[in-house]
Write a structure and sequence with these properties.
- By secondary structure, the protein is of the alpha/beta class.
- It is 24% helix and 33% strand.
- It is built from eight helices and 16 strands.
- The strands form three sheets. The chain has a seven-stranded antiparallel beta sheet. It has a seven-stranded mixed beta sheet with strand order 11-10-9-8-12-13-16, with helices on both faces.
- A hairpin with a 7-residue loop joins strand 14 and strand 15.
- It is globular, with a radius of gyration of 18 Å.
- Bound molecules: flavin-adenine dinucleotide and FE2/S2 (inorganic) cluster (FES).
- The site of flavin-adenine dinucleotide has 22 residues, from strand 4, strand 6 and helix 2.
């Protein structure tokens, strides 16, 4: 992991409150980037207010750049969303464990990718990684749900991955694009037909709880990426801890640091 200051290459508005930032990065940073990893980002203004950097998933990367997509929910995300080309950013990363590579790239199919809202940033990192390295996504399904059409971001880029085999199903809370309903309904239907499928999911906690329930009912395996609030991002503040089943199941539960032991956990190990 690296700690450095860098600058914005470009900032694109994807919806009224979601922005895609491309940032310059070192080649070493880009070599360590992987699906499911994240960065802590802050602006010059954020040295004292807000005091801390904020976590965002690494959505796509090249040799010397990477991209994040940021939804404005408070001061930190708002400051970052306003940066223009040349704007200064402080970065710490890549952080976290990312999705288990052997599971993600296993020949055993189907692979179900489930994204709710801004969870698409984390889930899309696997899709873009395959697209950019010209790997096949045959047997891979993306179930993508958002509140409404305007929040279904990165549609063109994701559609480009259908050329390498990706199947995309969208669903919205208000029915403005795709079916009306929750993304976990799509997953439940498909998993009943193909219970051997493996699942990778990222989104808000209620969605992840529901993914966990669906997996349990069908008896399938999966991984979920948590987005707990974070303060340091590297394991010293305990601000992000999550209750998980202990490795030695006799002793019940223990806590895990989402920033260093996660953010990706086997779905059945997380205790919500
Ligand atoms: C590993 C990880 C990856 C993430 N990836 C992305 C991403 O790719 N794109 C993206 O837009 N966001 C992502 N998030 C969430 C993002 O970090 C928060 O939205 C951001 O930190 C909010 O900071 P703020 O200063 O704008 O808001 P604050 O002023 O800190 O909070 C504003 C409101 O948002 C709520 N909030 C803040 N953080 C979270 C959170 N983590 N979960 C739920 N509610 C929260 C607060 O309770 C408050 O109500 C990720 C979070 C984690 C932990
Ligand atoms: S955010 Fe500080 S320990 Fe995880």
């Amino acid at each position: 992991m690296y700690l450095f200051n860098t600058e914005i290459v470009c900032n694109q508005k994807l919806s009224p409150n979601i922005f895609r930032l491309r940032l310059k990065a070192t080649k070493d940073f880009c070599r360590e980037a992987a699906p499911g990893k994240f960065v802590m980002l802050g602006t010059d203004d954020s040295l004292f207010d807000p005091l801390l950097r904020r976590p965002f998933g690494i959505c796509r990367w090249g040799e010397d750049w990477f991209e994040v997509v940021i939804k404005i929910v408070g001061k930190g995300s708002c400051q970052l969303s306003r940066l223009e080309s040349g704007g200064a950013v402080a970065i710490h990363g890549p952080l976290g464990n990312g999705y288990p590579k052997d599971q993600l790239e296993s020949v055993q199919k189907p692979l179900f990718l489930v994204a709710g809202g801004m969870g698409i940033a984390s889930i899309a990192s696997h899709i873009f990684s395959a697209l950019d390295s010209k790997q096949s996504l045959a047997g891979t399904f993306l179930f993508y749900g958002a509140a409404s059409y305007s929040e279904l971001i990165l549609r063109n880029e994701l559609t480009a991955a259908t050329a390498i085999g990706l199947h995309i199903h969208t669903i919205t809370d208000d029915g403005s694009c795709g079916r009306q309903g929750l993304v976990t309904q799509l997953l439940a239907t498909e998993l009943q037909n193909q219970p051997q499928g493996r699942v990778f999911a990222c989104g808000p906690e209620p969605m992840l709880k529901s993914v966990q329930n669906v997996l349990q009912k069908v008896g399938s395996e999966g991984y979920i990426s948590l987005e707990n609030r974070m303060a340091c991002g590297f394991g010293v503040c305990l601000g992000c801890v999550q209750t998980v089943l202990s490795e030695d199941s006799k002793s019940g539960v223990e806590t895990a640091k989402v920033c260093t032991q996660g953010p990706v956990f086997p779905a059945q190990e997380v205790v919500f």
